[in-house]
């Protein structure tokens, strides 16, 4: 989800201090999928992918997506093209550079929803973004590459609300002559988080399932849920967490609280 930097709403893929385990390679991934096929548990409605460092693994994801879509043409593939981010205004990749052409030429064309940050959108389109107008043009380009829905999850564009806000953008045709284009302005949080990009992509998948024809509502509920998770995480880190919460559906009260905490979502009906 965006930049992993103090004072921003969320971060992305700055390394944990320590980790253990093995990285699944493409052959192991193939064997795992073949096992699912043998057991007839390879029929899905949704598929979500995120961080990977191996281009052969990524290419195999594409083959599996195509096979799954042959079985179920209605399958929705959500791709978070995790490649890099901007640090102090400078972009850098934290995966091997040979993944970029695979994403651009193979992965994005088969994806239904993509969630790049600004730097990743620039990499995929080959164009820099200096303004909201340029961001919308880049999103148009990415849409023409294949995905039905494009969400730039974070950017360094200036917000009309001021420097304390972070801008994200979304684009989705509604099936007629109008394209849904939205701008999300979210208050920055004085903290650094790890794993929020995964949470955002998963929440967006869930809410686009609930609201397949309304990107504005899906994004509003996604960001509202993100705000709640991050604020609660901060409270727990400070030792002020009130304890387990009862299960409550995300609805109008949550959205109202999200607005009070600094969530603004505007919709542009652009022919």
Automatic annotation (TrEMBL):
The keyword Plastid does not apply. It comes from Peromyscus maniculatus bairdii (Prairie deer mouse). This is Pyridoxal kinase. GO terms for cellular component: cytosol. Residues 61-242 form the Pyridoxamine kinase/Phosphomethylpyrimidine kinase domain. Signal peptide: none annotated. Its EC number is 2.7.1.35. Transmembrane segments: none annotated. Catalyzes the phosphorylation of the dietary vitamin B6 vitamers pyridoxal (PL), pyridoxine (PN) and pyridoxamine (PM) to form pyridoxal 5'-phosphate (PLP), pyridoxine 5'-phosphate (PNP) and pyridoxamine 5'-phosphate (PMP), respectively. PLP is the active form of vitamin B6, and acts as a cofactor for over 140 different enzymatic reactions. It catalyses: pyridoxine + ATP = pyridoxine 5'-phosphate + ADP + H(+); pyridoxal + ATP = pyridoxal 5'-phosphate + ADP + H(+); pyridoxamine + ATP = pyridoxamine 5'-phosphate + ADP + H(+). Keywords: ATP-binding, Kinase, Nucleotide-binding, Transferase. One of its GO terms (biological process) is pyridoxal 5'-phosphate salvage. The keyword Iron does not apply. InterPro entries: PM/HMP-P_kinase-1, PyrdxlKinase, Ribokinase-like. Pathway: Cofactor metabolism; pyridoxal 5'-phosphate salvage; pyridoxamine 5'-phosphate from pyridoxamine: step 1/1; Cofactor metabolism; pyridoxal 5'-phosphate salvage; pyridoxine 5'-phosphate from pyridoxine: step 1/1; Cofactor metabolism; pyridoxal 5'-phosphate salvage; pyridoxal 5'-phosphate from pyridoxal: step 1/1. Belongs to the pyridoxine kinase family. GO terms for molecular function: ATP binding; pyridoxal kinase activity. It holds the Pfam family Phos_pyr_kin.
